[in-house]
Amino acid sequence: KRKVILDVDTGSDDAIALICALANPDFEVLGITTVNGNRAVPITTENTLRISELMGGKVPVYRGCALPWVSVMMGLRPYIPQYEPADPAYAGIHRTYIEQCPPATIREEETPAVVWLIQTLMAAEDGEITLIPLGPMTNIAYALRIEPRIAPKIREIVYMGGGYKIGNETAAAEFNVWVDPESLQAVLDENIPFTFIPLDATHQAYLTEEDAQRLRRVGTRPAQVAADLVSQRIRGYSTWQKVAEEPAAPIHDPLCVAYLVDPAVITELISAHCQVDCGRGAAYGQTIFDIKNGRLGAKAPNCKVALGADRVRFAQILEELLEHT
Ligand code: BDR
Ligand code: CA
């Protein structure tokens, strides 16, 4: 079994990713860490506990960083204790709480997420643990800064974040990176095997109401929650961002899980050098992927980046995983 840790800012799509990862018989989920992102960390933690409870409540949840590393402190982001997107359509994509589940009756662990990440990775063999971060990179950057000896313990990082040709928070930046650009750059600087699943891939792997129906037909409670979250996202995207001719929504975060189940869901994966724009101008938080293979003085690749995805296979993988629930 592959040992994984999910780092999440739950969130509608994080919730689906968690359900699928916890259902995957080939994963051993060691723990789930939460972070400030879609909402403030007390809310993303509560939402994570709701999903953990839905899935049996056996995997421990650790509360992570409440603020990004640099951006809020520098006045580059507003400090909004309960981050409410200004755009009501976007607020419909991620309701504040995962309303499909009742309030959690289980609680997070006492140990802070960054401390637990360091302890768990230090106790692991080299290359033993896969990290699946699905929100701002804050927790992992802090852990690596405090204890750099954890770097070789990480088998790989599969990250939902960034965009080559697409932004969704600003014209240049994807949301997860935009919240905490410096943390992502710090993690990239560690030269850990790193795969980006950016907007370019997730927007190709959009789901429609027909796909949601197929997930719903699996019939279990987790499948119903996942299907309802897909429908919620389709409604939200209908007045926010058009991703296909028919009503549809990208379901970003679970594409990382799907890729680890079957890499063929990604149709184009390119080695590249990624640099995060930390310049605090209009492109702050942009992921600049140099894929020119050494022309124009490119630096050596420090990551792989997914530029295409097979949406039919993606929907199939989600269905297959939900059948284990
Ligand atoms: C990412 O930002 C969040 O809104 C989603 O949960 C996803 O991780 C997409 O840009
Ligand atoms: Ca997320």
TrEMBL record:
GO biological process, one term: purine nucleoside catabolic process
One Pfam family linked to the record: IU_nuc_hydro
Record's keyword terms, sorted: Glycosidase, Hydrolase
Matching PROSITE patterns: IUNH (PS01247)
Gene3D superfamilies reported for this sequence: Ribonucleoside hydrolase-like (3.90.245.10)
Domain of life per record: Bacteria
InterPro entries in the record: I/U_nuclsd_hydro_CS, Inosine/uridine_hydrolase_dom, IUNH, Ribo_hydro-like
One Gene Ontology cellular component: cytosol
A GO molecular-function descriptor: purine nucleosidase activity
Protein name: Nucleoside hydrolase
Organism: Bittarella massiliensis (ex Durand et al. 2017)
Lineage: Bacteria, Bacillati, Bacillota, Clostridia, Eubacteriales
